[in-house]
Amino acid sequence: MVFECKQIILKDGRTAILKSPRVDDAEKMLNYIKKSCDETDFLLRYPEEWNITVEQEEAWVNRLRSSSDTMGITCYVDGEVAGNCEISFQSGMKVSHRATIAIAILKDYWNLGIGSAMFEELVAAAQKRGTEIMELEFIEGNERAKHLYEKFGFRVVSEKSNAIKLKDGTYLSQFYMQKYLCEI
User: Fold this and answer.
1) Which of 47, 122, 135, 178 has an alpha carbon within 20 to 30 A of 94's alpha carbon?
2) Ramachandran angles phi, psi of 99, nearest 5°
Protein backbone atom coordinates (compact mmCIF):
# COMPACT_ATOMS: atom_id res chain seq x y z
CA MET A 1 0.00 0.00 0.00
CA VAL A 2 1.51 3.32 -1.00
CA PHE A 3 1.23 6.49 1.08
CA GLU A 4 1.24 9.52 -1.14
CA CYS A 5 3.82 12.21 -0.45
CA LYS A 6 2.94 14.80 2.18
CA GLN A 7 5.00 17.76 3.36
CA ILE A 8 5.04 18.76 7.04
CA ILE A 9 6.75 21.58 8.92
CA LEU A 10 8.74 20.46 11.95
CA LYS A 11 8.79 22.33 15.25
CA ASP A 12 12.26 23.66 14.38
CA GLY A 13 10.96 25.14 11.11
CA ARG A 14 12.48 22.55 8.76
CA THR A 15 10.39 20.82 6.13
CA ALA A 16 9.97 17.06 6.25
CA ILE A 17 8.46 14.70 3.71
CA LEU A 18 6.24 11.76 4.64
CA LYS A 19 5.97 9.09 1.96
CA SER A 20 6.20 5.37 1.40
CA PRO A 21 9.79 4.19 1.07
CA ARG A 22 11.05 3.47 -2.44
CA VAL A 23 13.38 0.71 -3.58
CA ASP A 24 16.19 3.19 -4.17
CA ASP A 25 15.93 4.13 -0.47
CA ALA A 26 16.57 0.55 0.72
CA GLU A 27 20.15 1.17 1.85
CA LYS A 28 19.11 4.36 3.68
CA MET A 29 16.28 2.43 5.35
CA LEU A 30 18.63 -0.31 6.47
CA ASN A 31 21.14 2.18 7.88
CA TYR A 32 18.33 4.09 9.62
CA ILE A 33 16.91 1.03 11.41
CA LYS A 34 20.36 -0.13 12.54
CA LYS A 35 21.13 3.34 13.91
CA SER A 36 17.71 3.58 15.52
CA CYS A 37 18.18 0.22 17.28
CA ASP A 38 21.60 1.39 18.50
CA GLU A 39 20.14 4.55 20.08
CA THR A 40 17.61 2.90 22.39
CA ASP A 41 16.76 -0.32 24.17
CA PHE A 42 13.08 0.26 23.36
CA LEU A 43 13.09 -1.45 19.96
CA LEU A 44 12.87 -5.22 19.61
CA ARG A 45 16.27 -5.80 18.01
CA TYR A 46 19.87 -4.83 18.55
CA PRO A 47 21.61 -3.29 15.50
CA GLU A 48 23.74 -6.38 14.92
CA GLU A 49 20.56 -8.44 14.49
CA TRP A 50 19.83 -6.55 11.27
CA ASN A 51 21.98 -8.77 9.08
CA ILE A 52 19.93 -8.56 5.91
CA THR A 53 21.33 -7.38 2.60
CA VAL A 54 20.35 -4.28 0.67
CA GLU A 55 18.73 -6.61 -1.88
CA GLN A 56 16.60 -8.18 0.87
CA GLU A 57 15.61 -4.71 2.06
CA GLU A 58 14.70 -3.80 -1.53
CA ALA A 59 12.47 -6.88 -1.67
CA TRP A 60 10.83 -5.82 1.61
CA VAL A 61 10.15 -2.34 0.21
CA ASN A 62 8.59 -3.87 -2.90
CA ARG A 63 6.37 -6.16 -0.78
CA LEU A 64 5.35 -3.23 1.40
CA ARG A 65 4.44 -1.05 -1.58
CA SER A 66 2.45 -3.82 -3.28
CA SER A 67 0.64 -5.07 -0.16
CA SER A 68 -3.04 -4.33 0.25
CA ASP A 69 -2.83 -4.92 4.01
CA THR A 70 0.28 -2.97 5.07
CA MET A 71 1.28 0.66 4.65
CA GLY A 72 4.64 2.14 5.54
CA ILE A 73 5.35 5.83 5.99
CA THR A 74 8.92 7.09 6.08
CA CYS A 75 9.88 10.58 7.20
CA TYR A 76 12.67 12.27 5.26
CA VAL A 77 14.43 15.39 6.52
CA ASP A 78 16.97 16.96 4.18
CA GLY A 79 16.88 13.77 2.12
CA GLU A 80 17.78 11.52 5.06
CA VAL A 81 15.52 8.99 6.80
CA ALA A 82 14.45 10.43 10.17
CA GLY A 83 11.78 7.91 11.10
CA ASN A 84 9.43 5.25 9.89
CA CYS A 85 6.08 3.81 10.85
CA GLU A 86 3.87 1.02 9.62
CA ILE A 87 0.28 -0.11 9.92
CA SER A 88 -0.66 -3.72 9.26
CA PHE A 89 -4.33 -4.45 8.76
CA GLN A 90 -5.38 -7.89 9.97
CA SER A 91 -7.08 -10.26 7.56
CA GLY A 92 -9.49 -13.05 8.31
CA MET A 93 -13.05 -12.70 9.44
CA LYS A 94 -12.35 -12.90 13.17
CA VAL A 95 -9.55 -10.31 13.29
CA SER A 96 -10.14 -7.99 10.33
CA HIS A 97 -11.44 -5.28 12.69
CA ARG A 98 -7.89 -4.80 14.06
CA ALA A 99 -4.69 -3.14 12.83
CA THR A 100 -1.23 -3.21 14.39
CA ILE A 101 1.14 -0.25 14.25
CA ALA A 102 4.83 0.33 14.91
CA ILE A 103 7.04 3.41 14.85
CA ALA A 104 10.70 4.40 15.32
CA ILE A 105 12.35 7.80 15.04
CA LEU A 106 16.06 8.62 15.21
CA LYS A 107 17.07 10.45 18.38
CA ASP A 108 18.23 13.56 16.45
CA TYR A 109 14.62 14.03 15.33
CA TRP A 110 12.81 13.48 18.64
CA ASN A 111 10.46 16.25 19.85
CA LEU A 112 10.02 17.79 16.39
CA GLY A 113 6.45 16.58 15.77
CA ILE A 114 7.32 13.67 13.47
CA GLY A 115 5.69 11.05 15.70
CA SER A 116 2.47 13.03 15.96
CA ALA A 117 2.37 13.67 12.21
CA MET A 118 2.87 9.99 11.47
CA PHE A 119 0.25 8.94 14.03
CA GLU A 120 -2.30 11.29 12.48
CA GLU A 121 -1.76 9.54 9.14
CA LEU A 122 -1.94 6.06 10.69
CA VAL A 123 -5.23 6.87 12.44
CA ALA A 124 -6.63 8.37 9.22
CA ALA A 125 -5.65 5.25 7.25
CA ALA A 126 -7.27 3.00 9.86
CA GLN A 127 -10.47 5.06 9.84
CA LYS A 128 -10.59 5.02 6.04
CA ARG A 129 -10.18 1.25 6.07
CA GLY A 130 -13.00 0.82 8.64
CA THR A 131 -10.68 -0.50 11.34
CA GLU A 132 -12.28 -0.66 14.78
CA ILE A 133 -9.22 -1.26 16.99
CA MET A 134 -5.64 -0.08 16.56
CA GLU A 135 -2.98 -1.94 18.55
CA LEU A 136 0.66 -1.47 19.50
CA GLU A 137 3.21 -2.57 22.06
CA PHE A 138 5.84 -0.62 23.95
CA ILE A 139 8.64 -1.58 26.30
CA GLU A 140 8.76 -0.66 29.98
CA GLY A 141 10.53 2.64 30.56
CA ASN A 142 9.72 4.15 27.18
CA GLU A 143 7.78 7.05 28.66
CA ARG A 144 8.27 9.28 25.60
CA ALA A 145 6.49 6.75 23.39
CA LYS A 146 3.82 6.02 25.99
CA HIS A 147 3.01 9.73 26.18
CA LEU A 148 2.65 9.93 22.38
CA TYR A 149 0.40 6.88 22.29
CA GLU A 150 -1.80 8.16 25.10
CA LYS A 151 -2.05 11.54 23.36
CA PHE A 152 -3.65 9.69 20.46
CA GLY A 153 -6.09 7.78 22.68
CA PHE A 154 -4.26 4.49 23.19
CA ARG A 155 -4.69 2.80 26.57
CA VAL A 156 -2.74 -0.03 28.21
CA VAL A 157 -4.84 -3.19 28.22
CA SER A 158 -2.27 -5.79 29.29
CA GLU A 159 1.31 -6.38 30.38
CA LYS A 160 3.72 -9.16 29.45
CA SER A 161 6.10 -9.37 32.40
CA ASN A 162 9.77 -10.02 31.61
CA ALA A 163 9.02 -10.10 27.86
CA ILE A 164 12.29 -8.33 27.00
CA LYS A 165 15.77 -9.32 28.19
CA LEU A 166 18.57 -6.84 27.56
CA LYS A 167 22.23 -7.78 27.01
CA ASP A 168 23.05 -6.83 30.61
CA GLY A 169 20.47 -9.33 31.88
CA THR A 170 17.83 -6.75 32.78
CA TYR A 171 14.24 -7.90 32.21
CA LEU A 172 11.60 -5.43 31.06
CA SER A 173 7.86 -5.75 30.64
CA GLN A 174 6.13 -5.17 27.35
CA PHE A 175 2.81 -3.33 27.41
CA TYR A 176 0.00 -3.88 24.91
CA MET A 177 -2.15 -0.86 24.06
CA GLN A 178 -5.33 -0.39 22.08
CA LYS A 179 -7.22 2.54 20.60
CA TYR A 180 -10.90 2.08 19.80
CA LEU A 181 -12.03 3.92 16.70
CA CYS A 182 -15.72 3.14 17.34
CA GLU A 183 -18.04 2.02 20.12
CA ILE A 184 -17.54 -1.65 20.94
Assistant:
1) 122
2) -140, 140
